[in-house]
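Journal club side-thread
Mid-discussion, someone asked how the predicted structure for our own chain would compare to the paper's figures. Pasting it here so we can look after the session.
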Amino acid sequence: MTGGHRPGPDGSRGAAAELDRALADAVRATGSHAAAVFLLVPEEQALRMEVVTGLSARVVGPWSRLALAAPVPVATAVREGRPVWVRGHAELARRFARTAYALPYELAMIVMPLATDGTKWGALQMLWPGTRAEHLAPGEESAVTAAADRMSRALARAAASGDALRPAPVPRVLPAAAPARHPPAEAQAAADLTERLAVGVLSLDLDGRVTFLNARAAELLGRTKGDLMRTRPWETLPWLDDPAFEDPYLGALFSRLPSRFTALRPPDRWLSFLLSPDATGISVRVRPAGAPEGNPAWRSAPSATAPSRAGALYHLLYISAGLTEAVDLRDVTAAVTDQIMPVLGADGFGLLTADEGRIEILATRGFSPSSTAYFEHLPLAAGTQGAQVVETGVPAFFSRPDELRRAHPDIALYREMDGWAFLPLNASGRTIGYCVLGYADGRTFGPDDRAALTSLAGMIAQALERARLFDAKNRLAHVLQNALLPRSLPDVPGLRVAARYLPATRGMDIGGDFYDLIRLDGSAVAAVIGDVQGHNVGAAALMGQVRTAVHAHASTGAPPGQVLARINRLFEDLETDLFTSCLYARLDLPRQRATLASAGHLPAIVRHPGGGAEIVQAPSGILLGVEADAQYPAAEIPLPPGAVLLLYTDGLVERPGTDIGTAVHELADRLAAAPADSLDALADGLIREARGTDRGRDDIALLLVGPEERGR
């Protein structure tokens, strides 16, 4: 959709002109070989390329539309409002794996967010060969920053004038600086020179079209000069129509580094191609070559079920990468609606499954609520277009609205859009549902589009199957784990108690975290917390055995160190390779004391009645199950009324890049600062804060206990 460009420096036309000037200035100042400006389209939650230089609109097509939620450099810079600098492909793969899938070329890049006064407008992206220096020079950095500032101000002025710049369906191409023109005599001499060469020479522009070739190149390629001029070789020569041969061309364009490949011209002539790029295009040297080692089989054409262009294949890899990261159904639907749908450019999207003869809607966007309600729980026998796709397993595409509306005149949804794609979700030999894409202004579905969309639907189906399996196993696992944890804790007069257990947010299996509160006699209780190594059914089973053993030995009245030593010796009979950490605290309420013994567990933290908290510096023995004759020393601390003792597992404090000791001290500070009037509220606050950080990959168990203050 384009905005109405009007004359004047403050409208969209003025903004577009200023973007072009700033982009050209930044390219000249930094030596960038390709650069683009993306504009944010808030209602689509997408970023769309407005202008590009150094590359053609066709080449950048697969990368010209990005979801704002995608974990890619351009979207990250806009979301976080900070520059993103990537030094090469290795760093790109480490930090932005999806972009590395889609751009498998050796390049460096910077992305500058475009924003003014908190309003986000888009991003400026600039590329260099990956062989350049690791950092921008001060002058280069200043030039990029200045260009981004100029662009941001121009976009803000256009929006303030009521004529905001809107990206067109296809990016504008800002021509690179024209090369120096040679006098006709020199140009003719250069052409004559190439004709005397024993190798083939041809020149491609930035869009891949042949602009010059010598007679030797035409001879080696088996066509006349007239056949090849102004055409793309892989479109004119069937034996080059393979992504493996177009990919070196794209690599040379994006990285501006030489690339090469060898191809078989049927029936038996091998040719070597060397591609040398610059700002105006690519020079190609062609010469005879020997068969590659192993003499790989020649393919006359790519598969009919996959996109035939290398860029389309990499684009498919990019948009499907989010599905490979999805774990449960919520992840799959979020990946499809937030990251894949904006890239596809659809105005409406639905993800539906077919269960027990009825349609179930997993996700929908862009369609009216009444239409969505019509399809929810609709029997497959209703004969909708989606039901037909489920029955046949064959996709259906409608570029014109009349055909679909005539076939289904009573379905209001089919009147909301002009272009449609119905894609079966085929997995495990059956059709489990379908995707529907709607395009308000219609859509022509070419062979590449149909192949890419069908392939993507297959990936979505596989992701749904994995997610369903995960959800089913996850429910079963957590039912088992919850059955092994205490249903409730004993009510001990004079003692406040709160416990929480939160399973990991990722991972197929269950953990071995456990807690317990054991009434010992009329004046004492035992508070226990532990963590069995591993996340599987074996860990959960061992956790149940350890809990039972703790109860048995605690009921004898044994002191904490002896309880842990006896449980440790039990591991010899359990014949397990798993280790367990455990912290056992005996609370003597009349004496206002607590005795603690630890088997390799994280230290307890005590919050004092008058405020402040400290880590209990008690000696720790080794993990349970390591040495049968290990001893576990104990330490006694005061626990007056109003004090709170916190026992916890590592899921509450561990996070990537932070020392565990530092994390425990930070937890003590949070405990000291939090109100302790309600232990339940305190426990909820600690869990909530832990989940708000980059944790969530391990279970969390915590136990808060403390004598009530007198008079309460």
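Post-session note: The radius of gyration is 33 Å.
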